[in-house]
Write a structure and sequence with these properties.
By secondary structure, the chain is mostly helical. The chain has helices at residues 3-23, 36-41, 51-59, 68-81, 85-109, 115-124, 129-133, 138-159, 164-183, 190-202, 207-236, 246-265, 288-302, 307-323, 342-345, 350-365, 369-395, 400-410, 415-427, 431-444, 449-461, 465-478, 484-495, 499-512, 517-523. The termini are far apart.
Length: 524
């Protein structure tokens, strides 16, 4: 490699790194957000420096998901950063930038036009902000970096003739894929992706392709089942999700696919919780996206012998494979608040982005110099728009007040946003502000004990005892398994002199949990 080529590569890498650092500069010192409590700030298993604690994260985790490598990454950071969020933010930002560089390397290795431009667009794209600016999504940024490394090794081994070098690259690919799955199982579709890649490259899928992908299929199957068990048994638990039947799920999936594609092309008014479509029962028009999706798939397949048709199948095949697990066919806990989310798009968006940029780069290379200058300037304008939009969106992730006020600006019917903002205000002594948001949250989701319980707490703060008792009683009926709600009701009874009622609740709880030390202490 000559000196000029090396300088060009270093310059391009520097631009990508600096762009990523600037876009996410608003959250260098961002606060903890939402699920960060269960992930880190309230997770005693992560807050250890012992090997026993590390082993527990892998073999006996108490977490809502089985993503042991992501929790290990936090465990490694804990001795250095503790409860100061800055270090964790810097780590996930650097992981994202690393993914940008790895994406550049992967696309260049695949000889995809516009490889660097695609990587830059991905690095500064506003749809990535949720995954990068929120410490809880460290699992996303870590998993993607490992996944891209696995892809690079896979492409490398596929380019090699039979021999020891090919086998080494193959084993490295398997190893990085396993690590990516341990970080987050969002990469579960990679085995199928390897077969799609073989078809894209050679026009056919051989028995050898399937055999080499077999270990990945096994990894995906085992860890995929584990993830579903954790989601159903812990993250969702006994709570029922308002999803509807299979017809509702089909309608939701079709609209989600078009929503995600539109977000890639026009990433404005992004929020962590989008308005949830009413699909139970679905309307006829809500199935229309499948006509467009089916028509596009048929058109691409009809033109599969052409270069652009084959590239389109690879790009949209990648997108559909990676987004499929979060389309609503399998219950996931995030569906309790919304059907779609930007962090679900973090990995799938790579396919369409690469296709769009590669198409533009190929077209631009055929233009005259004057046209090329004009369109390059326009492309730079698009880059600036994306970067600025991402920068200002990142500001919303500075703390919970910014985040939930930003969410309610575009989705005032988000019960979770009202619930979280109410808690933020209550913790800072704004009782009236908390009451407003808790009341809205309770009206939006009257079926949840969580919202009723919080309303009861703020009603007690306001001295409206009878209303608080009613809210607690309704909360227990809605969510009888949340132990904190009976605690609150029993304490309220005690405060107003209803000692027998308070005692009865503690006795009932002791019968259900006879070895609970907290209950034993309170009962005594």
């Amino acid at each position: 490699m000559n000196y000029r080529r090396m300088l060009d590569i270093l310059t391009q890498a520097a631009v990508l790194v600096l762009a990523g650092l600037w876009v996410y500069s608003p959250v260098y010192h961002g606060d903890w957000l939402w699920d960060d409590e269960s992930l880190l700030t309230g997770n005693s298993a992560v807050q250890t420096t012992t090997i026993a604690g590390l082993i527990k994260l892998w073999l006996a985790p108490t977490t809502l998901d089985y993503f042991p490598l992501s929790y290990t990454a936090l465990w490694l950071q804990w001795p250095f950063f503790g409860l100061q969020p800055t270090g964790y933010h810097i780590t996930t930002i650097l992981l994202h930038i690393t993914s940008g560089l790895l994406l550049w390397a992967l696309l260049a290795k695949m000889k995809i036009p516009g490889a660097w431009a695609t990587a830059l667009v991905f690095t500064i794209h506003p749809a990535c902000v949720e995954s990068v600016a929120w410490v809880s999504e460290t699992k996303n940024t870590l998993s993607l970096a490992l996944f891209l490394a696995s892809c690079i090794f896979w492409v490398g081994q596929d380019d090699e003739p039979s021999g020891s070098k090919r086998e080494r690259l193959y084993l490295w690919s398997l190893a990085f894929f396993l690590l990516a799955m341990f970080a987050k199982t969002s990469v579960v579709a990679m085995p199928v992706l390897t077969l799609l890649y073989a078809w894209w490259k050679r026009g056919t899928v051989t028995v050898q392709d399937a055999v080499r992908a077999a270990p990945m299929f096994l990894i995906s199957l085992v860890l995929g089942i584990v993830t579903i068990q954790y989601q159903w048994g812990r993250a969702i638990g006994v709570e029922s999700l308002p999803v509807g039947g299979i017809d509702s799920r089909i309608a939701t999936a079709g609209m989600a696919i078009l929503f995600y594609l539109a977000t890639i092309v026009w990433p404005v008014h992004l929020v962590p919780m989008y308005p949830r479509w009413d699909v139970d029962p679905p309307k006829v028009w809500q199935f229309l996206p499948w006509i467009a999706i089916g028509g596009a798939a048929w058109w691409l397949w009809k033109n599969r012998e052409t270069t652009w048709g084959r590239n389109g199948i690879l790009a949209f095949g990648f997108f559909l494979l990676m987004v499929a697990p979060v389309l609503g066919f399998v219950d996931i806990s995030y569906m309790r608040v919304t059907w779609v989310a930007d962090h679900f798009l973090y990995l799938p968006m790579i396919g369409p982005l690469a296709l769009i940029v590669a198409t533009a780069a190929t077209w631009l290379a055929k233009r005259e110099d004057r046209e090329r200058t004009v369109f390059t300037a326009m492309a730079a304008g698009v880059m600036l728009f994306l970067a600025a939009n991402a920068f200002f969106y990142a500001i919303a992730y500075m703390d919970e007040s910014h985040l939930w006020e930003h969410t309610l600006r575009y989705n005032d019917d988000s019960w979770q946003a009202h619930n979280r903002l109410g808690t933020w205000k209550l913790n800072r002594g704004d009782v009236e502000g908390a009451y407003y948001h808790y009341r809205k949250s309770s009206r939006l989701r009257p079926d949840l004990g969580e919202t009723k319980n919080n309303l009861g707490v703020v009603l007690m703060k306001k001295g409206r005892v009878n209303e608080a008792i009613k809210a607690y009683e309704e909360a227990i009926q809605a969510s009888p398994n949340i132990i904190q709600i009976p605690f609150n009701l029993a304490d309220t009874y005690f405060q107003v002199g209803r000692y027998d009622d308070s005692l009865n609740i503690y006795e009932q709880m002791l019968q259900a949990r006879p070895d609970d030390p907290v209950l034993l202490f309170r009962h005594a």
